[in-house]
Design a protein that fits this description.
Helix content: 55-70%
Number of domains: 1
Strand order of the largest sheet: 2-1-3
Number of helices: 10
Structural class: mainly alpha
Order of helices and strands: HHEEHHHHEHHHH
Shape: globular
Radius of gyration: 17 Å
Strand content: under 5%
């Protein structure tokens, strides 16, 4: 990746990473977590995490192209390596929302402006725009907390990949990357453990 370029993945790649971290994830969960990954990544990095559109279906946000591909084919594209930013986004979303059932995620997304606005369109399965996602997640009451968690997770993943990364930090990064926890990580506590500023 050259200087100034932005790598945008396929939703297949992000879904693959979600399923690697949460092997028993249901279809509804995967699509809602993709919605949250796209929204928080847009708020953090100001560019999409994956190329495919998210649509407002009756049961909440769905990446329609991924849903159709997995249901009817064709075979998924070859796997791409996720960037550290992408891994940090997935880890943070799963830490925050990974304990929720499909039904709870449907209820949560139905209460959020991006889905509500798109679902009120006269057209069925209207696309939820990047602008709507960026605005909602960028102006959320807990935006600063979540963005601090994203930065801290990225730093942990980067540091754990270096030769001089200590064993405790590697274990912490693995725990974060392993998937959802009962309660979300506290960004300040994580940053303090890592010795970095949020």
């Amino acid at each position: 990746m050259g200087t100034g370029t932005v790598e945008v993945l396929s939703a297949h790649d992000v879904a693959r990473e979600i399923r690697r971290r949460v092997p028993l994830a249901g279809l509804v969960q995967v699509h809602k977590w993709l919605y949250y990954c796209q929204g928080w990544h847009l708020a953090w990095r100001e560019h999409p995490l994956f190329l495919e559109d998210i649509q407002a279906w009756t049961n909440g946000p769905i990446v329609a192209d991924l849903w159709r591909d997995e249901r009817y084919g064709p075979a998924p594209p070859p796997a791409a390596d996720l960037t550290t930013d992408a891994k940090a986004t997935v880890a943070t979303v799963l830490d925050r929302y990974g304990h929720l059932t499909g039904v709870a995620l449907i209820r949560l997304t139905h209460g959020e402006a991006p889905w509500r606005t798109a679902s009120e369109s006269v057209w069925p399965n209207e696309t939820i725009t990047h602008a709507a996602l960026r605005s909602f997640f960028g102006e959320s009451p807990d935006t600063s907390e979540t963005l601090a968690r994203l930065r801290a997770t990225k730093h942990a993943l980067e540091y754990a990949a270096t030769e001089d990364g200590n064993v405790a930090l590697k274990r912490l990064a693995e725990r974060i990357a392993a998937g959802p926890r009962e309660a979300p990580l506290d960004a300040g506590g994580l940053a303090a453990k890592l010795g970095i500023a949020g």
